[in-house]
Design brief:
little secondary structure
């Protein structure tokens, strides 16, 4: 009589990771940070003129024709 093969164990179920207490506390502290400003009204005095803004650095590279 042949030896019977061992039955394979089913794969262990992975537990879902729970966020730590510090992550949950940080989330609660900043829960109201995601706000919509679409209902706000601005006066002309609140606007910063383009000349008063600092110069921009970087930018977007423009594709040139004939470049290989």
């Amino acid at each position: 009589m042949a030896k019977s093969a061992k039955k394979a164990k089913p794969p262990a179920k992975k537990k879902k990771a729970r966020p730590s207490r510090s992550v949950l506390a940080a989330h609660e502290a900043h829960a109201e940070d995601d706000v919509c400003a679409c209902d706000l009204e601005f006066d002309d005095g609140d606007v910063t003129a383009d000349a008063d803004l600092p110069p921009a650095r970087g930018g977007v590279e423009v594709a040139r024709a004939g470049r290989r």
